[in-house]
Write a structure and sequence with these properties.
homotetramer, alpha/beta, 8-stranded parallel barrel, two-stranded antiparallel ribbon, 16 helices, 12 strands, xylose isomerase activity (chains A, B, C, D), Xylose isomerase (chains A, B, C, D), Xylose_isom_bac (chains A, B, C, D), xylose metabolism (chains A, B, C, D)
Chain lengths: 438, 438, 438, 438
């Protein structure tokens, strides 16, 4: 039996003309090339997501599955799961990506009882461990799917029924065990059903407390089993809920600080969620970085004119440049990375489209990285910023910056110095200089 | 000289037909009527805002002023300011509202120096104090206008130039003195320019630190002068900035907790800002109430299909009902209130439109209050909620609620009890029951 | 064998308290009551939709099915289809609604060939005809599902492959035959995949022409078979497409007029689609009515803070009032009606929730109808409008209205009469008067 | 007296470092360079707008003016107007742009009567004619400001008072005379107040008819005076109105066709308006081009996360590339052009920022043009498209395309040929290939 599902990418004609002058290959990404002191691979830490790329069917709310995947054909659920895992590792290897991410229920089918589900997971992660060792591919993060099963329709840790919360707790316990077994570098919580559909039937105060207590139990168990990975919360404003408690980066930070959980968590930012919350693409990445909470990035994109999560592959060089500039400035994402939480369109039905999409997105980020390195190394934009804030380096400004002055002293300063001068913000100049690097 | 600008409202024909069967009057609001243990006046604590109703001109980004106001005609800036103040108190009194709110620069014109501005403010607040004593009308809150003057174009406490920050500090110092002098019950900070227009020219980390230090100075000065009022921050996501740091309730809560400021501040929620942040009308009111941070409400509305702050008078009974339900459930807004941060449309050019708009909005809130009282006193919705969360009152649910269990115990519970049963969320039933009270 | 799936609604306790003082029943809708010259039933022409209420599973993009429906259990696809149809007619009858709507593929399962699908449809519509005659329930409209099958993923009449377009044509031919057989009063086209996901791979000009030609063929066939029903196009801006050609009412009107199709079509307006297009709830209903193109209404609602189609049951009395006011003013919707293109939430898992949702929505529209009748019969709002536009009833205004003047004459009028006087738009007064009727 | 307001741009240091290695200059735009058969100047037809760049003050709804412009200081209104006009022509010339656009009221101050306003306009356009001849700069388009004066607060051609409509007519008559006098190549109608604030006080049917009759009078007068320019309508969905009748391209096309006006008008598309209507940046440009109605472009941009018109200078190369690809494909914009309806930020207070912004935007469009030419000349994307729609070139597809088939024939085709094959839409590949050209 062959486990070969994918062609050699260097044989896929990329340029559409008959006499193809080009085959599918990276045009910008060069894993081992050193930029600004690290290899590209090390800056970018790409990861393939299991659910979209290996479990996705192309179904949408208005349409049936469109994606034929040979690993999904025939056999029992567990046999299919194994074929899928082999296919995935073949893909990771041929693509040359060193990390993957998955939900517990992506990798192993849910059984009719918790015990059966756990048993399935044990068997599948045994195989995953073998494949990881064979290939050197590692787990960027694991997460538990606490949203797809009907039991979670009204929430997992925020469910009005404590029985459901208990189920979620049991599932997370196993998920943490799996994270340890597979050496996952991070563990993600995405609360897709932790919120409400209607304020009328919801006790928000109770639900928030339960969610906090749930996280505390996860922290306790993590410490008990000596699991070293970073906990991450992934904000999303809405969809499937009308309102999710983890609306955006600042909502999560506020929640974590209120419940004394901020030392135990960082954030996994997905820009498609950020834009759904009404922010610009880079907003939550910048804000979490400023608050020291940027842990990892789900590198995808939406369309600004659409109001739901489209999970498209990121292609905009301007966006990838800003993200990578932030990443470099905070010294990298380790132990996080850039996870492609993105799916090929349901109309992109060729198996090669999986390669095309990943390669195009990796190239887009490689271009972003190169641009960001040039911006940082040339120092023009940074110089403009430094000059702009110069007044906080001495005198009254320095006192403000260090928290050593008072309203009385500020008033006295104005009485001495009068009206400040008008200073142009030079926004168009900054935009133009930024454009120069794209 | 007469300071009478407004007609007696009981003589304004309200119904448009020639043989008017109706004059302008409250149809639902009845100040002294006791509901659920307090007078309507005490639950609602209405306040008229000075800027829109007495300083507004009707100008918009595409049009010149449309509103002719007799108190703005003729005389020096200070003479006009005094006429305006007399007009306002005449309006408060005829309308029967006991509170007003104002920015420092609404009440007294800005001078060419800080000293001159302060001098103007002293003179005007002397007069205000006289009028307050004569009428019994009080200050719900004062705020400093740190956004309209060109010096603040790049921010006040987050300005890249510390000279500007110093000016803002001097202005707030005076504002706090004024708050004390006039017995203001609250003091509001709205950071209309505290954010950014472009991420490219902004040092977010520095600006947030400066903003926090600025608030700390305000707290210190407040304590120094023995000012008793409640400090309030008013979130807004954007406009005039592309992004304001005080994006929404949770952003502000996260910021306050991060900088250790949460004991000193509550929030002033404006629903038109909440909807601009992508939330439902009541969202920030509910969330701040849950976090014990709801201080006051800027009772206005926008249109869900518009992306800017229209500051319309609130007219939707469903919205006013939910707001009042939340207010009653937290035991009232004291020392906050319901401030009409709302403006008549620029096309509503009749002086009587000011009365019509306020009376209609007060009636809308009076209907909301009556509905909310019925909802709470009949207890049907509350009963549905209690039943829904009943499982947290005993057994494993109670342990979760009290933070006394663990993932291991939850797993054990599931091994014993298996799959939870499916329970309908009954959303349509809740909506239908809610409709019953509207 | 019993085909009884639903309880008698008069035995379902509605009020949640133990000693229920109330059972499920209409509180406002009274089918035979005459208002403004017609029965409520005749003004409202309610219709139940087949897909959401009988085929819906509760699956969403993030979750598996939640809704257990006894008629979906056991048996072959055709056996299930028949049980479903019996259940539906039982529901229509117990609810007291006289119309239903369906897609071809809701009623009969798709076969492996067109012939087999058509055969299934013949068998199912034979049964439908029997049940229609037995119950008196009629078809408000039929539509063909040209979006769910994978073949339509890139469009039906706008597919880049003419083979797919041909398939859609064959399917519509059969759909029209079915419409005739069952006496459908209307036939709807909803182009869920008629648009694009990416402008980069789309030839918009070609696709629009093909769509127009497709409609022309449908008109020709309708005339050929003597089908009397009204053709309706249902606009939607996006979802599943990034952009649908039938974006909103005016887009469809522009398209129809450009291709000379406007005599053959009216519009079926769904307010949840209207708000997704950035309009207010009532916008497309008002605009189509003004252009003489309002044919029918999919009476549902979304949430203004959500960017996708939630298809909720309409509960807002303000909205139902405006819709019914427009409907009355144009003399009714005949042969259209109010079709509940709405689904119970996936968390509303009780079978009784189907009744609760429909009854609550029917009551919401009954209240809207009563309000609208009062508004129209009392004439206050209409009087305000008449007075506002009075200047077009004589003199220069009348000439403008009748198209009998010129810029030169207008200039001469201004030279004679100078500046117009300022007239308040009285928006708050109108809103307040409108509130009076809610 | 010197009329020199601006420095020589080649002396403005552009790169911020002290030892400037760079002065302000075009880096991509090269007016005379021939690409795809025309000069860049000829493809791009840049135009400077008068209102933002010469009349703008930097005031916004929350702030006072910030922009000090020397030509606005001192003197009477007419003296200032003349200084402004000299400044503008100095700027056009130094920038090297051959077109400008203006509103009647930008160029000459409104008088206290129509006659006085017209007299001011005569005097100012005499001067403009002299300066046009001296410099060779021409008028891309004129428009009448029918929105800023209070008389137009409730609309101009849709005002409920026919007296106001008459005023607007008189003003347009003069505007058309001015267009002829100055040789304007186009005349624009932007209906900023042609819509409604509230549906409650609006007779939509009457207003639409009056607007149509107004346009008919304008067409008649244009023909009478032998004015050769192209009439253009500029859509905008909202702001200042809650809803504008000219919502987007398709709304305008529907309106024009309904009233038989489509032969006399094309559209002036502003992408910032397009995105406010919920579309992607390029949508209305593509749609009008497909319908043969793309007349001119107001080349600006907004921010996708903001809900109002920010009129920023266009800087995104992806956007400029798509626009120019569409422009080239329709054979150019003549007699239209790319008008910079964009304003420097109110914080960009240096006079040089005007140059920086225009040069950066012109460079952005020059890059877009170069990219578009490469895309078109290399033909890869076009080849992919042609292949995708190939089936419409023969057989049943060709019959569909030519409107020569029927549903019966399509059904027969399917009976013969069965199920179509699945064909990937290759969206990611298209995006990737497009990225290759950026």
């Amino acid at each position: 039996m062959s486990t070969e599902y994918f062609r050699d990418i260097s044989k896929i004609p990329y340029w559409p003309s008959a006499g193809a002058k080009d085959v599918l290959c990276f045009k910008h990404y060069n894993a081992g090339e050193v930029l600004h002191g690290r290899t590209m691979e090390d800056w970018l830490r790409f990861s393939v997501c299991y659910w979209h790329s290996f479990c996705g069917t192309g179904a949408d709310p208005f349409g049936f599955p469109t994606l034929y995947r040979p690993w999904n054909e025939g056999g029992s659920a567990m046999e299919t799961a194994k074929k899928r895992l082999h296919a995935a590792f073949e893909f990771f290897t041929k693509l040359g990506v060193k990390y993957y991410t998955f939900h517990d229920r992506d990798m192993a089918p849910e059984g009719s009882t918790l015990e059966e589900s756990n048993c399935n997971l044990d068997e599948m992660t045994d195989l995953a461990l073998v494949l990881q060792k064979q290939t050197g591919v590692k787990v960027l993060w694991v997460t538990c799917n606490l949203f797809a099963h009907p039991r979670y329709m009204n929430g997992a840790s925020t469910n009005p029924d404590s029985h459901v919360l208990a189920y979620a707790g049991a599932q997370v316990k196993k998920g943490l065990d799996v994270a340890k077994k597979l050496g996952a570098e991070n563990f993600v919580f995405w609360g897709g059903r932790e919120g409400f559909l209607s304020i009328y039937n919801t006790d928000v105060a109770a639900e928030l407390k339960h969610m906090a207590n749930f996280f505390k139990m996860a922290v306790a168990y993590k410490e008990k089993i000596g699991l070293k990975c970073q906990f991450l919360i992934e904000p999303k404003p809405k969809e499937p809920c009308k309102h999710q408690y983890d609306y955006d980066a600042m909502s999560v930070i506020g929640f974590l600080k209120h419940y004394g959980l901020d030392q135990h968590f960082k954030l996994n930012i997905e820009p498609n969620h950020t834009t759904l919350a009404g922010h610009s693409y880079e907003h939550d990445i910048v804000m979490t970085s400023v608050f020291g909470m940027l842990g990892s990035v789900d590198s995808n994109t939406g369309s600004p004119d659409l109001g739901w999560d489209t999970d498209q592959f990121p292609m905009d060089i301007r966006n990838t440049t800003i993200v990578m500039k932030t990443v470099i400035e905070q010294g990298g994402l380790q132990p996080g990375g850039l996870n492609f939480d993105a799916k090929v369109r349901r109309e992109s039905t060729d198996l090669e489209d999986l390669f095309i999409a990943h390669i195009a997105a990796m190239d887009a980020f490689a271009r972003g990285l190169r641009n960001a390195v040039r911006i940082i190394e040339e120092g023009v934009i940074d110089g403009m910023l430094k000059e702009r804030y110069l007044s906080f380096k001495e005198g009254i400004g320095q006192k403000v910056d260090e928290g050593k002055t008072s309203l009385e002293e500020l008033e006295e300063f104005i009485k001495q110095n009068g009206e400040p001068k008008v200073t142009s913000g030079k926004q168009e100049k900054c935009e133009s200089v930024f454009n120069h690097y794209l």
